[in-house]
């Protein structure tokens, strides 16, 4: 084995390791993103399931920002219901509830939940996750 | 030899170097062993391999992460589709159920309703969409509301009948092609960005007949009829004409629709009566277990039933029928004319006579206008031994109806059931001489040479056979031995006496009448039915076998338990649930078990309600414990039936004379009747009380309940569970 051969091998190895490193880096970013999206998904579903389980009449229409959606906070003033959500650093929840009516009667409440965050531990671009659903008026 | 060559030995020879070893084996040339050629490029190759592997790993990781990310979004879209489906079903389930309700699916009385027809069709039921039968008011709205969420979102709610299977398919238990079990399936499908989720609310549907299996073929089905002695039912005191004097009255079974039947009244059909297989269309009777002997009631009166062996055409001219014994069954002297001394001339004057044997049957009668008791033993034709063995009272059970046209109701009788009846045997004597024949025909009453009943100890072969009034008009002077020999057994076969026959003999004899009423012989010419204990019964509806097994319906309980659609704990809860307190009507419309742990009596109607209990919606009541008391049951529709199954009951009691339009199956119970019976349906019990004050009455078979008829399948009850069985995603 000559010196020349060793130098050539080292050079080839360097050329190969460059895309390898890039793909590993991309994969690691993907893992991070998936983890974040999973967290966001769980946060959104947690809130959606809570709202879906509430009596239709007690679910108020309106819009809520992250600071209004914290564990123990009332949905609206004087409401007997409070949010029961897991605290999440770096994630912000948003909630919008809209009434859908027909023939003068509220048939559904459309629930739109968004969870936004800055990717890569706050260093990356802003990202968000949305879940939408209908809450049915079962008393009609 | 270089170091590298030495470092890579290729032979196992202990003293040879690698090169020498290879050379010795002749495997390699010397040129191939050059060290520079074997190691050149090796490092580069290693680097390339490692690099390639790393690159592949990196690419795999990259794509795997991408795929996982896509899966996460697919999962999220699926969650949204789920929420849409959930919202869909929550929003419209009431409308769906209302639509199902208004579709008539639950309207048990409307057999023309298409949904009822689908469920009660006597065949397997495949998965069936009900959307074309329902007023779909919800899917258009759901579509619009889904569009508010996302242009790709949709919600659709459909109603199906799914997963139906037939539940009564074993002929050893019972076959009912209508009985089935499955689900009413309300299915909501939400779709969001190409991902679908379906939520299903299932409610079990059970379809089963409210008629009792097997026993609905019977008017009367009595498991242990002979308990208490084979003659226990012979307690009725009647006169020669079949009218009652005092004391108990009989139960009369009408095994087909009669002119006065409720719902199913039918005029008399003489042509139908002539059908030799008419029993197939009628309600049958089973008197099980021990031997039962029923003394046939005499006369054409209100309760007479001797029409089995009498002239049946005109009950107002009720005439005994002379039966002839076929010549081939008679002793040899009957087969040719005999020359014998004449009874009204000097000794030695002879005449030629031809002999035949005939007899009439009669029924039992306890009284006449001359005697208060045991009048049938007047004249010493019947013996004291028979008097003590059979008595003179007739049977409490009249199995073939009564004498009026349209009410005679011969049927199949199963079990060890014997009919007892007096047979008055006589000789038919025809002189060959025409003058003597004229003398014979001029006698009033006609010459009668009875063959009296005698026990063996009193048998005298030399006893002279005379006209029963002792008249002398040119008849033969003869003794027993001349015609019957000297053996008592031979005479016994032809003498008068009370005989016992399988009950079905009457069926066959009546067939003789329908074929040729002028020529009756005994035994009957027609042998249609024979004695049958019912051990291997087979029932068919068309070509389909619906039951094959013993008449005692051993698996009836299992079949009925499998039909139960609803269970209530107590009798009071039952009435609370199903009795309309305002109208007093029973709205059962199902098959309901009452647990009744306190073993309370089930009284129909309840004691605080006036009789009868009006049944708007029929059904089947399984009374798991306790007895049954009936105060009158009236069906408000001919398409309804009410059945009570009481497997543990000790008694079934009728307390008034109001019509009982009901089927009762209580295989351990005694049937007790406190007032005149008017039963319309099937009665299946363990025994019938032979009450010395029995008020009598009628038991009417209900033809539409006959399981061999297609119309019996119309008594199915559809039950949809009140709660969702499960959610299915």
Notes on the structure:
The complex is a heterodimer of chains A (140) and B (729). With 140 residues, chain A is α+β, with helices and mostly antiparallel strands. A 4-stranded antiparallel β-sheet of chain A has the order 1-2-3-4. The N and C termini of chain A lie far apart (87 Å). Chain A has one domain. Chain A is 39% helix and 29% strand. Chain B has 729 residues and is an alpha/beta fold. Among the domains of chain B are: 115 residues, no CATH class; 245 residues, no CATH class; 115 residues. In chain B, 44% of the residues are buried. Chains A and B meet through helix 1, strand 3 and strand 4 of A and helix 4 and helix 6 of B.
Number of strands of chain A: 4
Straight-line N-to-C gap of chain B = 78 Å
Poorly predicted tracts of residues of chain B: 1-33
**Number of H- or I-type helical stretches of chain A:** 2
Largest sheet of chain B: 14 strands, mixed
| Mean of pLDDT of chain A | 85
Overall geometry of chain A comes to elongated
Largest sheet of chain A: 4 strands, antiparallel
Work out the helicity level of chain A. 25-40%
Order of strands in the sheet with most strands of chain A: 1-2-3-4
Percentage of residues in helical conformation of chain B: 10-25%
Number of helices of chain B: 14
Whole-Å distance between the termini of chain A?
87 Å
| Largest binding interface between chains | A-B, 45 and 48 residues
Uncertain runs of chain A with pLDDT below 50, 5 residues or more?
none
**Order of helical and strand elements of chain A:** HEEEHE
Question: What's this, in brief?
Answer:
The complex is a heterodimer of chains A (140) and B (729). Chain A is an alpha+beta fold and 140 residues long.
Question: Secondary-structure blueprint of this entry?
Answer:
The complex is a heterodimer of chains A (140) and B (729).
Chain A (H helix, E strand, L loop, with lengths): L2 H50 L9 E3 L26 E12 L2 E14 H4 L3 E11 L4
Chain B lengths: L2 H5 L10 H8 L9 H5 L2 H61 L11 H6 L8 E2 L9 H11 L4 E13 L2 E2 L3 E2 L4 E13 L2 E15 L8 E5 L11 E3 L14 E4 L15 H4 L10 E4 L4 E4 L26 E3 L13 E4 L8 E12 L22 H7 L3 E2 L1 E2 L14 E2 L2 E15 L2 H8 L7 E2 L29 H5 L3 H5 L4 E6 L1 H12 L21 E5 L2 E6 L6 H8 L2 E3 L2 H8 E2 L4 E10 L7 E3 L8 E11 L4 E3 L2 E3 L6 E4 L5 E4 L8 E11 L3 E4 L2 E6 L8 E4 L15 E5 L5 E3 L1
Parallel strand pairs in B: 7-10, 7-34, 9-16, 9-35, 10-17, 11-18, 23-25, 25-27, 26-28, 27-29, 27-30, 28-31, 30-32, 31-32, 32-34, 33-35
Antiparallel strand pairs in B: 1-2, 2-5, 3-4, 5-6, 6-36, 6-37, 8-15, 12-14, 13-14, 14-18, 18-19, 18-20, 21-22, 24-25
